[in-house]
Amino acid sequence: MDMTTQLKNSLISKIKDSNDMNFLKALKTILDSSEQSLYQLSPEQNNSITKGREEIKSGDCIENDHLISEMKEWLTKK
């Protein structure tokens, strides 16, 4: 079992065993705020994502492998 799984299981066990309403509310607040920050993007970030999606739809992009190949070639010339 990896460390992440062990930590999750330990936390789950402690939460199940707890009857401390203040602790549980505080934990819920932490988890709720953590989730919100994952999905709140700035207007600039949203615009960049939209622009990137439009570029992909129009074919205005290159494959990652091709880009890496070009970068390696450029670096060997330096």
Descriptive overview:
- With 78 residues, the protein is mostly helical.
- It has one domain (3-77).
- Helix content is 82%, strand content 0%.
- The model has no long low-confidence stretch (mean pLDDT 89).
Short description:
The protein has 78 residues and is mainly alpha-helical.
Number of domains: 1
Helix and strand succession?
HHHH
Kindly state the percentage of residues in helix: over 70%
Cα Rg: 23 Å
Give the percentage of residues in beta strands.
Answer: under 5%
How many DSSP-defined strands?
A: 0
Residue-averaged pLDDT, rounded? 89
N-to-C span: 46 Å
Give the overall shape, derived from the CA principal axes: elongated
Count up the helices: 4
- Unreliable stretches (pLDDT < 50, length at least 5) are none
How would you sum up the major sheet?
none
What structural class do helix, strand and pairing data support?
mainly alpha
Q: How does the SSE layout of this entry go?
A:
Layout: H1 3-17, H2 21-39, H3 43-58, H4 64-77
Output the keywords.
78 residues, mainly alpha
